[in-house]
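Bug #77: duplicate submission created two jobs. Keeping one. Sequence:
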Amino acid sequence: MDSIKRSITDTIITRLNHEQVVALTGARQTGKTTLCEMQLPERLDLSFTYISFDDPDERLRFQRSAVQILESITTPLVVLDEVQKIPQLFDPLKLVVDRERKKPANARKRFVLTGSSQLLMMKNIRETLAGRVALCQMYPFSLFELTGGGESPLLSRIWQDQAISPQDAGRLSLVSPQQLRTLRGMRDEHQRWGGYPPVWQRTGETERLNWLKDYRKTYLERDIADVGQVANIDTFALAQKLLCSRTANLFSISEVSRDLGVAVNTIKRYLELLTMSFQCVLLPPWHENVSKRLVKSPKLFFRTWG
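Kept job's structure:
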């Protein structure tokens, strides 16, 4: 599959123009490494150094002399992948960033940190890099990205302008029936399978379904059991299914607690883990009365249909 332009690239470039460090987080397999290795350096037109801490030898090397290694890098862009696997990196990185600030702006190195475990990564950022880092989140493919991107989405422009422009209205009448059929087909596929890039690299229904099953199994056994420290994975998995069935609905913790037969605090803990691992989001209501926005029930949304 050809590389698909990611909408977040422009945001990262803007943040890098003002900050020396950008932390890019997101669920596993959303394309963070591909973005940082291929699209970002190309857009910035900069040489870069890529270091992945999936490699245990790299972790050992940085544990021995992280400051010297970071200072010896000569490229203007440095990508440090899966940084949550080496928490000892953050103090040396803070020191190097503070030293870089003393250099002229055009001579400073820029760092992009990526991590798929917000549970581990954000703790280190809050304790060490607070005030020195810009935070960005990456999601699976949106329908806008899969259909080619381009200018901002039509619905975004309508929302910003509170009206549809004559130019956009004219374009709608020029779309051919074949284009409409293609877009509807892409929409249906996206709604059925979600936006994880590996899903779109597979064409068969069985292959896509098997990948999603394996992804969920790995998520439960690796992220939740190990990092989230959940004792009863079966109960968590059932809660995840129950919450999925309520996506786009008003969220009531007490109702979920009653249906699942567990304490309200347990549901709160499960929801926190799902949110921190980029699986779902609580959308607060909009209301002219600000107080009502804060107290009315939010809606629960899962980030991808897959």
